[in-house]
Prior knowledge:
elongated
Amino acid sequence: xxxxxxxxxxNEEVIRELLKLLKKNTMKEQANDVFEICSYVDGLEKKIxxxxxxxxxxxxxxxxxxxxxxxxxxxxxxxxxxxRLNTRCEQIKSQVLEVKEQVKSTAKSIVDEAKAKGRxxxxxxxxxxxxxxRLLDIRENVRGAIKTTDKDIAKTALLTNGFxxxxxxxxxxFRTFADKPEVDYSQKEQKHPITKAVxxxxxxxxxxxxxxxxxxxxxxxxxxxxxxxxxxxKEKYMENVKTKEQEQTEPERAEAERVEAEVVYSPMVAxxxxxxxxxxxFDARGVDEVKQEAxxxxxxxxxxxxxx
Length: 308
């Protein structure tokens, strides 16, 4: 395994950069969710590696088991059980690596857009929810592996008991032949080599599968939680933006209302002015007419005097 392939998600530069951007933009809860999701994926990968180690050890011990007729007949069945588990683990590991790559590519896309467009691009972290389908598929695979392992453990335990009882019967037969008393092996705990070589690794692998299922449950819940936190933050952010816009336009609104009030008020002021102007014109016209009439009378009087 090369260093790049074995690098954990939480140590990936793009993930660290995304977490930094989220925290910088007051999205701490979302940053925590993303970090935990990456940690869960890293945990799945580690568990798979531990399983592979157990199965490799199991394979080696099966090969080294003492050669005899009974064991030779069992070795094939035990090897097949080991191969089934190994194949299942390889499938799950491949699925986990696909999730890992999807998380990295999604993170890179979000980081690039956030650098260009700002905070709103960070809401795209909800797109991590797309890996939920992959995680659900892995969980189904793990559950299937648990069932298969339970069956193999039961078969191996039965085989081990058979070998142990056969050995005990053979031992007592020899003791009887040698005129020695038989031994009650039911009072003694004796483990057959298969127990250590096969049964113990199988149980260890099963335990890891169960732990992995719980890990997957938690990661799926965390994805749902991330989507919810993003939505809540988005609504809160938009509400704050709306409030700020309203506060910024308040002076403009006040100015508009003032202007509107002046427009409405000015005709009320102009009307008496217009009326006063017309009244003055009427009065001026009346004065002129009086003067003209007086002048006419004066001319008529002068003419009358001359006639006399």
